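Appendix B.2, paired examples.
Example (i):
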Amino acid sequence: MKKNIALLTGGTTGEWVVSVKSASTIAQNIDLEKYNVYRIMVNEDSWFYEPADSIKIEVDKNDFSLTVNGQKIKFDGVFIVIHGSPGEDGKLQGYFDMLNIPYTTCNALTSAITMNKGYTKAVVSNINELNVAKSVHLFKDQPHNEEKVLTNLNLPFFVKPNNGGSSIGMSKVKSASELTAALEKAFNEDDQILVEEFVEGREFSIGAFQYKGEVIVLPTTEVKTTSEFFDFEAKYTPGATEEITPGNMNEEEKERVERIIGEVYKELGCRGVVRVDYFLQKDTGDFYFIEINTIPGQTITSFIPQQIKAYGLSLKEFYSMIMEETLG
């Protein structure tokens, strides 16, 4: 018997447009012989299912159900593909935990922690062979933020919202005169920001997921961008970056990275598919953790679909594995 799956998309941040594209990829590739898929839009005003143009059916949030043609539909599981709030910060996860409905992502606690870049770095910093760039954690409207940054960090550095993804609100600062504008840009996106010293090296992004108790680390993607750094436009504009999958690592680097990523997945208590961004430092080859994304993009230009292909799976097989692991 087919399982009813809610595919949640949208959200309340600027990342909703990426979420909608990700949901389209999943909807086109999920196994419809196994699952009845209902794409549900979540925004600040409402949660609704849109079976046809101009027809919107509101979700009953009391039990997360739909009534379609007089029939009440309840869900066996939820595929959350909302980047940013409320899909990636633990809010929806807590809601579904209370309703006892399984979902594809990390749990509420892990989602909340990993949404905060500063807290995440504190959790993973004790992992063997993992390094983190020196950083300063700032809060909006606190005095002397600029002084704190310039006193404690060496230029250049990155300024980024502490909660968020897709590099929205992020800047690279190469001189002290650029700092004020960079802080304002980041604080427009979040009340907390993280300023990190620049680590020179090769940038990579790598996916991992759990299936039948085993953490599977996917082939990594090496990122070479023509932009100053890997920002929102570089991420989602075809041709703006050179993305090499599998990335160019020697056997020692490959084995070490896979070992570290497995430890990151376990240390943070992850579930479902996640993506970790990292540097291999120039000259040393040391692993520097950048951030983890617990609901990585699934758009046509996203890394996970590239890495799934390189691993030797179809997206249909991959999404079935994710749903099997979710539903138990």
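Example (ii):
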Amino acid sequence: MTRAPIAGKQRVTSKKKRSASSRSWLERQLNDPYVKRAQAEGYRSRAAFKLIELDERFALLKGVKRVIDLGIAPGGWAQVVKRRNEATVVVGIDLLEVDPISGVTILQMDFMDDGAPDALMTALEGPADLVLSDMAANTVGHQQTDHLRTMALVEAGADFAGQVLRPGGAYVAKVLAGGADHTLVALLKRMFQTVKHAKPPASRKDSSEWYVIAQGFKGRTEPGEVEEVEECG
């Protein structure tokens, strides 16, 4: 395979037959500045910069001592947490096998399994300051179905956060275009002081992903105790 620069960009050329979508993906990777930065700085994926940018905006990692990473593969977010504070205890979970990360406990299991929450809390050995979720359901190509499946993961993550977070803690989760639905927002507003949506610059413009950032964990309250959600671009 050779890589030919054209107009400042690299184009994939090869004698091996590739689909148009495969060539497009390879060219995007080759020319993505975040991919290049991740490689240069030793991060496992460009997704690391999404957390870095969210942290710069919301101070998510300030003073955190225990963090749970839901959907940890390939490990970029956990790397960011450990680089910010090596002493932070990080426990991650994923269906996929993840190469070891120094100082990080990684559980290879389905977060939706009944035993997953207890396994995570046992490994963490104390209340969490932050629960991160970059989980997304496998897409089937039907927008409404994909949205519902991903929202089910976000809601399961929020329910888990309500069990493991210390007062004042935070929950960050990936959602799809349009953000969290009204039911989930209402749940989060009962649990947290502030609930916001953001799309970090590292998230590709053509991607439907956004993130919901819930901060100031206060525990579950009665359904009537709901504040207005603040939307952020």
